[in-house]
Amino acid sequence: MALQCGIVGLPNVGKSTLFNCLSNARAQAANFPFCTIEPNVGVITVPDERLTRLVEIDNPKRVVPTTIEIVDIAGLVKGASKGEGLGNKFLANIRNTNAIIHVLRCFENDNITHVDGTVDPVRDKGIIDTELQLKDLETIDNRIGKCQKQATAGDKNAKRQYDILCRYKETLEQGISARAVELTAEERKCVWDLNLLTDKPVLYVCNVDEASAVTGNVHTEAVKAAIANEHAEMLIVAASAEADIAELDTYEERQMFLQDMGLEESGVSRLIKAAYRLLDLQTFFTTGADESRAWTFRRGMKAPETAGIIHTDFERGFIRAEVIKYDDYVALGSERACRDVGKIGIEGKEYIVQDGDIMHFLFNV
Fold first, then answer.
1. DSSP alpha helices (H): ranges in the chain?
2. Which pLDDT tens digit goes with each residue over 148-170?
């Protein structure tokens, strides 16, 4: 599932440093590769301790983790919505992503110039928000006139869409992002093609100095207060320290570094996992002597749909799914043991796959 998170922020906030750390993410015991699709797009392995445990149990010939795509989008500037600083190109790159990782500078360093002279992450957030909101307003204005004419002519679908567009417009004109507009599932279907920039889920990453990596600082507290009503997640990451961790050769060295900082898990690992959640993704597994593999699916998908992720024939000829819960598999130590004690569930077409399920699909085409 080629779903992407785009990393955005003003210049010199640490976006590229974080992206480079992600490209060398070796924080987990299981070290899987990173690859580049384009100069600014990377396929990032999602750390998952459950896959590592399944590998320990089954000792397979091959291990395949799940991945997401991260896009490093060049630094936005004031006026980007009007094309300043190649703004149109960068905004188009954001539009093509499914979620946004917004990096904010929350560290003081006289050797790294801030584009606005002082460190103020709340102000920086406002600059980016304003540029994205202005672009969304342009999108709304381009659509609303045509929609209004159709609504006036008696088109019920156009009337419904026009009402939603007006709600978006009113919200954006108040300097509030489109994601604040609450829509039903049916209403979202009416405007799915708008692809508004500020309607995408967002994760705020506060880039701090090493001393603030555990507890944060006055800047991160300001960001926390500023996003209190956004229903957004916030992470504190020390990108410079993460870059140092990425240079270490062994898992043991990296763990010692983290312990010295007072951290249990690297910021890169936490960021990747948070990005995965941000995209509303979950994982099911297939495992055995030949291969242990993690598969990405969207939360709420039914068994035939997830079978189709493996192969379209699996979905087309779906008969049933055999499901083992991860905890049962780990506790009992094998598929055979789970079968012997009746811990394999037989599920049909309406079964909603759960995060961590170990699946075996039966099909006939």
1. 15-22, 49-58, 87-95, 121-152, 156-173, 185-190, 218-226, 239-247, 251-261, 267-278, 303-310, 312-316, 326-332, 335-340
2. 888 888 888 888 999 999 999 99
